[in-house]
User: Fold SoxAX cytochrome complex subunit A from Chelatococcus sambhunathii.
Amino acid sequence: MTGRAPRLLVGLLAACLAGSSAPAGDMVDKRSGADFMSPENRAMQADDMSNPGMFAVLDGEQLWNRPEGANGRSCAGCHGEAATSMRGVAARYPAFDERSERPIDLAGRIGECRRTRQEASPLPHESPELIALTAYVAHQSRGMPISPPQDERLAPFRDNGRRLYERRIGQLDLSCASCHDARSGERLGGSVMPQGHPTAYPLYRLEWQAVGSLQRRLRNCMIGVRAEAFAFGAPEIVELELYLMERAAGLPLETPGVRP
Assistant:
């Protein structure tokens, strides 16, 4: 562990441990994480020529039009122009999946389409290809409000996601709510703690020097509080995504975002 890491952990404890978690429904002033960034980072996100996440979007456009699998079918072969057919889709995910009878996120849906429609192998979690396709599809909904599906079948999974959000975990005994509800707007290690709304994924994170998914960020947080992180694609992490999107309802999508 580097010398910087213990200082961050001490700061995390000092900033969050005493905080109580406010119910998400009581959050009056919902704000995107972009609102807590420096003017330079906000400018980088706003300018498509400067936003590094746009490289993933451009790669995703090529993949959208490329035939794949045993039947040689492309995404465009079924869905046509993404600007039309995918408009608003990302704002409604995770959604209920009839086959598995549980929620599935956007990356998971892309994997299912590859398997069942294209007869191609699903792309590995966090692979550049899956990140690019997900970013391209999500980008078509940029500016649209997050609109979680009002599907009663999702209710028990969303409730479990909320329990996961509020549950203290790890050696630091912290929950998501400890920081993002009780202490949002305060500083930790020089950075302002945002409210934790997933408005911009996949996004380019300066710390990663790469574009990554919401699941990657959630796993980073779990590891940061010294907890065992859920595996990519685990039911629990999708349920947490589901709750977070409900919590962020009404905020506009920003994909691809930029974050520190």
